[in-house]
Specification:
Layout (H helix, E strand, L loop, with lengths): L9 H8 L9 E3 L6 E3 L9 E2 L2 E2 L6
Antiparallel strand pairs: 1-2, 3-4
Length: about 60
């Protein structure tokens, strides 16, 4: 197995690990009903996706 030839400094190690962040989910507004929804997903409130009715929602 490969073994490192020299010790990496803590600064280099921490720079590599700095990119492991959590991001907020992509929330957008539904063009049909105006409710908030996750991007690229069917609206749970009205059942529309990409201006097309995908799921029948009974009110």
């Amino acid at each position: 197995m490969a073994v490192p030839k020299q010790k990496q400094s803590k600064a280099r190690r921490d720079k590599r690990r700095a990119n492991w962040k959590m991001r907020a989910p992509g929330i957008s507004e539904c063009p049909q009903c105006g409710e908030t929804k996750l991007s690229h997903r069917i609206c749970k409130h009205c059942g529309y996706y990409n201006n097309k009715k995908v799921v029948n929602k009974e009110d």
